[in-house]
């Protein structure tokens, strides 16, 4: 399937699939979307420790994150940069069935747009799959080349970045079957965040046990969803 690099509204690049009219990130701003959905409402939300709202009882010293759709590596790069700021150790697992090519990696401008080291971004893509690599003092990465329905972990992750292609083009990724796997993979009080706000997605999440809330979406999108696996007292 043909893929091409395009520039989004905030100046950052993404990959466009003409056949699907679908992008790896929002055309309204790839970096803006990543920060809003996954960092602000995922990582930062989870990190607000010792608050009644978030239900977290211990300071955030380390956490485990699963990304559904490693794709361009943008979410991983931003999380790495945030882990350094927060002084929080992050074990990051990125699942991707169809890795992008080195040529496509070379066409992405996230490092320059984020004023970060290009070598770090390249390393995210260059390290081998199926092995854990220490990318920085605070951030480790394990990339897994597999389909999302092959995920079998139980109570491993604090946060899931659910960044699959949209339900319009891949509805099979937004089902109760997949979200049950996500629910099982999360630890108690873990959260899943996604850019989608479709009613069918919200209902599928709720049906497997998630507590789901609608939140303001990133630029170009009215709403998004955050799902929590609260501890049952």
TrEMBL record:
GO terms for molecular function: oxidoreductase activity, acting on the CH-NH group of donors; tRNA (5-methylaminomethyl-2-thiouridylate)(34)-methyltransferase activity. GO terms for biological process: methylation. The keyword Magnesium does not apply. Keywords: Methyltransferase, Transferase. InterPro entries: MnmC-like_methylTransf (IPR008471), SAM-dependent_MTases_sf (IPR029063), tRNA_MNMC2 (IPR047785). Residues 150-229 form the MnmC-like methyltransferase domain. PANTHER family: MNMC-LIKE METHYLTRANSFERASE DOMAIN-CONTAINING PROTEIN, SLL0983 PROTEIN. This is tRNA (5-methylaminomethyl-2-thiouridine)(34)-methyltransferase MnmD. The lineage of its organism: Bacteria, Pseudomonadati, Bacteroidota, Flavobacteriia, Flavobacteriales.
